[in-house]
Design goal:
Keywords: Flavoprotein, Oxidoreductase. GO terms for molecular function: FMN binding; oxidoreductase activity. With 419 residues, this protein is of the alpha/beta class. It has 15 helices and twelve strands. The protein has one domain: TIM Barrel. It is 36% helix and 12% strand. The strands form three sheets. It has an eight-stranded parallel β-barrel, surrounded by seven helices. A two-stranded antiparallel sheet has the order 1-2. It has a two-stranded parallel ribbon with strand order 6-7. α1 packs across α14, α3 packs parallel to α6 and α14 packs across α15. The C terminus is likely disordered. The protein binds flavin mononucleotide. The site of flavin mononucleotide has 26 residues, from β4 and α14. Flavin mononucleotide (FMN) binds next to β4 and α14.
Length: 419
């Protein structure tokens, strides 16, 4: 008898039931149309995942403010102007029985000029420590409230379109995580200082979103276990935030880590060799916060590649849901074989520039370029599926470099931007 751990349904606090424990994690698609609404290619892409056997499909990050974009081709939901296309997107995602949640995000100081984003804003006027990224302006108190209201407005539209829930992007160095980190949040008012104050922005967003949707609608949070930066958001901070949001009406906390300055979410430098050896990068942390999360289920994303590791993580109670990112860009139906029976390891190539490591070590720009190309290579696979093609695991990195330059100019290879 095959083990049924991953195929077991999961009831969420709101009453919504996820059909199984596998989650297609958020992957920014870059497939909006010229008006920042969902393009036909985006909907075609989701028809592949809808059929993929996941209990929960998360969309790539969708912006709550059209003036602030994280990546070229982001969908924006700030009112109901795209309701018709959003409705088709939701319905397509649900066709195979999965729940579909939209990830909502504001990039803050990680706003991307290549995406046509204007001057950036952040909790404080502290820039990202990456060359070429302009410094942000500090938000006024009034603007902080306005952004909280935007998350609520977007969630109401997303619900009207038929999505089953939203996930607030509180990880990876975007605005919510900028508020959480003492490195980027130097405010001395009620939004800065002690972790309770730094978490206020996230808590207020959760409350505003909850107040704008019906009780059975899913509300989740993606949270960093830490930023992996000296002086940044620590594991202790993260534990405190988990305790705080466990008291709110949250359905699922997804654990990730890192930011563009330190991309631990995709297992790059900050993740130690011992952590990488355990396959899933943030599992140890999840085990440690399990109790603090109370009745709120936990998802862990980052590094999961083999079925036995996924089964063990859920069976041991380290997490309730297994998030899959890069592998589902190559095998959109991975969830089906994983949930049903024995499946071999998922394909997820380690993409490397053909340059010796010792040279990369002394030339950090090469390392950064490798990181950008890795993200773009996966984005290319999403675009192939949007065009009605199959993913191409053998795609050469130079092809990705050429496509990226054609799409977004040579600057796209310089700055470390992505998800
Ligand atoms: C191309 C690409 C796009 C991504 N876009 C997002 C995003 O929009 N929102 C998000 O929270 N994470 C995003 N991520 C991070 C993934 O959700 C996930 O946390 C990460 O890839 C680690 O999981 P994995 O090891 O299964 O790939 C992205 C990752 C990649 C490779």
């Amino acid at each position: 008898m095959p083990d049924t751990t991953l195929a077991t349904p999961l009831p969420l606090p709101s009453g919504q039931i996820l059909p199984n424990r596998l989650m297609k994690a958020a992957l920014s698609e870059g497939l909006a149309d010229a008006a920042a609404g969902p393009d036909e290619r985006l909907i075609r892409l989701y028809s592949r995942w809808a059929d993929g056997g996941y209990g929960l499909v998360l969309t790539g990050n969708v912006m709550v403010d059209g003036r602030h974009l994280g990546e070229p081709g982001n969908v924006v939901v700030e009112d109901d102007r795209h309701l018709e296309a959003l409705t088709r997107w939701a319905k397509t995602g649900q066709d195979g029985g999965a729940k579909i949640w939209m990830q909502l995000n504001h990039p803050g100081r990680q706003g991307n000029p290549l995406a046509g984003s204007g001057p950036t804003v952040a909790p404080s006027a502290v820039g990202v420590a990456i060359r070429g990224v302009p410094a942000p302006r500090a938000l006024t108190e009034e603007e902080v409230h306005e952004i909280i209201a935007r998350f609520a407005t977007s969630a109401a539209v997303v619900e009207e379109a038929g999505f089953d829930g939203v996930q607030i992007h509180g990880a990876h160095g975007y605005l919510v995580s900028q508020f959480l980190s003492p490195l980027s949040n130097r405010r001395t008012d009620a939004w800065g200082g002690a972790v309770e104050n730094r978490a206020r922005f996230l808590v207020e967003i959760i409350r505003a979103v909850r107040a704008s949707v019906r009780p059975g609608f899913g509300v989740g949070v993606k949270l960093n276990s830490a930023d992996f930066q000296r002086g940044g958001f620590t594991a202790d901070d993260s534990r405190a935030v988990v305790s705080m949001i466990a008291d709110e009406a949250v359905d699922l906390i997804e654990i990730s880590g890192g930011s563009y300055e330190s991309p631990a979410m995709v297992g790059r430098p900050a993740v130690s060799a011992s952590t990488r050896a355990r396959e899933a990068y943030f599992l140890e942390y999840a085990t440690a916060v399990r109790e603090l999360a109370g009745t709120v289920p936990l998802a862990v994303t980052g590094g999961f590649r083999t079925r036995p590791a996924m089964v063990e993580a859920v069976a041991d109670g380290a997490c309730d849901v297994v998030g899959l990112g890069r592998p589902v860009a190559l095998d959109p139906a991975a969830g089906r074989s994983l949930a049903a029976a024995d499946a071999g390891p998922l394909v997820s190539p380690a993409l490397r520039l053909p340059v010796p490591d010792r040279i990369k070590r002394v030339m950090p720009t090469l390392k950064a370029l490798e990181g950008v190309l890795d993200l773009q290579w996966h984005t290319d696979q999403l675009h192939r599926m949007g065009d009605g093609l199959d993913p191409d695991p053998a795609r050469a990195l130079w092809r990705t470099a050429a496509t990226t330059v054609r799409r977004n100019g040579v600057d796209a290879l310089r700055s470390r931007r992505g998800r």
